[in-house]
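Write out this protein's structure.
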Amino acid sequence: MDNIINKIISLDQRAWEIKNSTDQKLKENEQAIKEVLSKMEKEALHQAKETGRERYEQLIKIGQEQEKQISEDTTEICRKLDERFARIHAALVEDIFSQIMDLE
């Protein structure tokens, strides 16, 4: 009978050790998973920042190119307007001068 009781106690103690060992392994696995998830989250945030920065730089470059083109187009339009004004102005001055001379 003592032998049976000792076996039951031994089995009970072994079950308790297995339970504690399992609980410890679960805690370790949980911590490891949390660390992996944290690392993955940091990497995802870093990648998102990098992608955002690259896209921002692309958009800035496109904007600068458009600004340059608009500036060049505007300069050309102003040059043509100045030439046209100069031609019209010269013709008007000549016409007015002729009219003044005819009045005398």
